[in-house]
Design brief:
Layout (H helix, E strand, L loop, with lengths): L2 H20 L8 E3 L5 E3 H10 L31 H10 L5 E5 L4 E4 L10 E9 L9 E11 L2 E5 L4 H24 L1
Antiparallel strand pairs: 1-2, 3-4, 4-5, 5-6, 6-7
Helix pairs in contact: 3-4
Amino acid sequence: MGWSKLGRVVSTFLFGALLFGCGTEIKQEFPTIDKHGDVSTDVEQERLKKEQGRLFGGDALDFFNLGGSKKKSTVRSGISVNSFLWRATLDTISFLPLSSADPFGGVVLTDWYAPPKAPKERYKLSVFILSRQLRANGIRVAVHRQKLVGSVWRTSAVAKDTSVKLENQILMRARELRVASLKMK
């Protein structure tokens, strides 16, 4: 192997190591929605504040402390959101097809659903459970709507109170589940 081939192999390895070191895992804790509709978590925001000014971020490959101790990841079991809100969310939107449900991050995403009475409209929900307590501000619902125009689905406006009504239904169901659990004790 000549020097140029060896140099390419070494530089490819170093470039790969740098790319590997740049990736960080974002742990979803409690998602929040800002005024622009972007979803972020408290953990993500805190991590970004800590990593400002660092070249490769906090979880980057550490060339100078290869044997040293790094922060150990914590293993979590069970769901980290309010179980009544979680169950109530799944009960309330059970007529919609689920795309994903993350009990650790408290995020439920549905797939598109077209009501039988209006086949040229379809809806999709994003539900964010924001708290471990059963509180009114512990849940956020985003409703997406599309209309079929010709052969293309176009984004359409949703009534402003639709998401609030869904949030209230989920909260009412969560309270029912909580009351039922207290009666069983």
